[in-house]
Amino acid sequence: MKALIYDCEIIKAIPPNGNEPLQDGIEYCSGWGDHANMGVSVIGVYSYEQDRYRVFCKDNWADFSSLLMAADIAVGFNNIGFDDKLLKATGILPEYEDTKRYDIMREVMAAAGSASFAGFSLDAICKATLNEGKTGNGAVAPVQWQRGEIGSVVDYCLMDVRLTKRLFDRALAGAPIRDPKTMREIKLRAPT
After folding, report:
1. pLDDT < 70 positions in the chain
2. Does 3.30.420.10 match the CATH number of domain 3-186?
3. Which of 61, 91, 93, 114 is the most buried (most CB within 10 A)?
4. What is the 3-state secondary structure (H, E, C) of the chain?
5. Residue ranges per structural domain of the chain
6. Per residue in 55-100, pLDDT tens?
């Protein structure tokens, strides 16, 4: 199977909720739905066909698009609800068949019988299933990017790709994943 795992990080920060002040010198978009104004800083990828991790930035978006179009299945965590919308709004993602997408978050929610995103973060699912969590927070990545901490953002993005790959490998093998809310073992729909 020519599967591709991918994850995107953004350039502009998401405004904080509540009364927290905006940070001086940091650019913000208007919120999580403002895909067109977020900007893409980095795309992390694992290619099963090439058996390697890759990083894509502005200078090689076309290479990412070509790799994505050649894949049999494009896999992510909330890729349908976030990454794909971001990539389409910024012109990086060409149109491709919906059947080529596999969203780990949506698959876990469906297998758990939940319609709510609450509690189904990559961090929560990985801690419940793999006893390993994320190395950072996606809301911090754009602040780091704007401060020039490029290596930290790339490292964080690739770790998310690695964790998503580990969950996808379990789905491919028919191995259970734990519902982070109940700790019940569930099986995801087999990727096609």
Report:
1. 18-21, 94, 96-99
2. yes
3. 93
4. CCEEEEEEEECCECCCCCCCCCCCCCCECCCCCCHHHHCEEEEEEEECCCCEEEEECHHHHHHHHHHHHHCCEEEECCHHHHHHHHHHHCCCCCCCCHHHEEEHHHHHHHHHCCCCCCCCCHHHHHHHHHCCCCCCCCCCHHHHHHCCCHHHHHHHHHHHHHHHHHHHHHHHHCCCEECCCCCCEECCCCCC
5. 3-186
6. 999 999 999 999 998 899 999 999 999 999 999 999 998 676 666 8
